[in-house]
Each structure stands twice: as structure tokens, then as C-alpha cells.
Design a protein that fits this description.
By secondary structure, the protein is α+β, with helices and mostly antiparallel strands. The protein has one domain: Alpha-ketoglutarate-dependent dioxygenase AlkB-like (Jelly Rolls), CATH 2.60.120. It has three helices and 13 strands. β1 and β2 form a beta hairpin. It starts with 7 loop residues before the first helix and ends with a strand. The protein binds succinic acid and fe (ii) ion. The site of succinic acid (SIN) has 10 residues, from β6, β9, β12 and β13.
Length: about 220
Amino acid sequence: MYTADLFAQERLGQRDAIGPCAWVLRGFALPYVDELLPALGRLEAASPFRHMVTPGGFTMSVALTNCGALGWASDRRGYRYTSTDPDNGQRWPAMPGVFARLAAEAAAAAGFMGFEPDACLVNRYAPGSRLSLHQDKDERDYDAPIVSVSLGMTATFLFGGHARSDKTAKIPLYHGDVAVWGGEDRLRYHGVLPLKGPSHPLMGEQRVNFTFRKAG
Ligand code: SIN
Ligand code: FE2
């Protein structure tokens, strides 16, 4: 297992409640990293990261790709889940076994048993990349939680309420952390502040986030 800093070991196993049905499982993904990174390499070789355009016409600062039966996509016409990569017309790469296992085990550790995601959005942040406040509401039902894995540079995650204008908590997400939110917290607004800070010893000048969802 690779630990980026002296505090990573201390955080490991810590579980921070950020809502009634929302947790950050500190370091939960660390034991999986050695398997996640080669799987990510194969996935991005098939469906490379790209900057999508929002319905409003802005190019996202976050680059993304997907794996699983469904992938999240955006263009001038809107947000949607697709079974194929719009750039190459092929199916999104299959979800690697280690991704599905990590997602199910993190969900279970947060009390959501039997999580079987069919979509994994992979976001890549460079310094300055941000994600504005939004709700995850393009999925067919909201019974399943969201499981969000952080790798690389530390991000400041914003976790708000059910209205865009609600106050947001600022939560640092470190390499290996897994955030899980569901139940009454499933539709809470969230986002990520512009990425800054030291480069990560293993991942370099970037942060990669996997967001697992049951979309279809
Ligand atoms: C997302 O909301 O899609 C990603 C959140 C994150 O990068 O932590
Ligand atoms: Fe989201």
C-alpha cells in the first residue's frame, strides 16, 4: 500500500459522518490502489479523457470518461446516460472487477448493502479544475447511494443541502478516501473547489475521482 503522507495511516479506518446518511470513509480505497491504477490505464486507452460541453455551451474544466453499462455524458442538448462513447461509437469499457468490488464494499461499510453500480464516471482534475454545485439527478431512481472515490491531489469537496443556496460544508478529500451518500442525503447539492496545492507523490499534478451510480 502506498501512503502519500504521514497522516494517511492515522486517517485509515476513520469514518466521518457528513450527513444523516452520508459518510467519508477515510483511506478506504488505499488497499485497492495498486489494482485500480492499471485498470484505469486500460480504460482510458479505450475511452480517453475528454472535456465535454455543458448545455449552456461551456467546456468543463474537468476531463471525464466512463466505464460500465452506462456512461454520463453532456453536450449542447443536455445531460444523459449513454451506453456508447459518443467519441468512438463503441460501448463504454466494461467496469473492471476491482472497481465494482470497491464500490460495493464501500457502500456496505456505509450501511448500503447490495450496491451494484452500472455506471462509473471517471473525473480528472488538473490544478484549477472545479465542479460547480449540482445534484446527481440523471439516474432513474434514487434508492441506490452515490459512491465517490478520490485519488491523487487533495480536493475540497462542498457538501450542501437540498437547495442550491443552502450553506455548504467544506470537506477535504484525500487520496484513498471514499465518500458515500444516499437515503435522505441522496439529492444534496455538492461540488469541488478549484484544485490546488501540492502535487501528489504517486499521481502527480492531478486528482482522479470515480463516481459510482446505479443509473439505469
Ligand atoms: C461528482 O460530483 O461527479 C464528482 C465529485 C468529486 O469529484 O469528488
Ligand atoms: Fe455529482
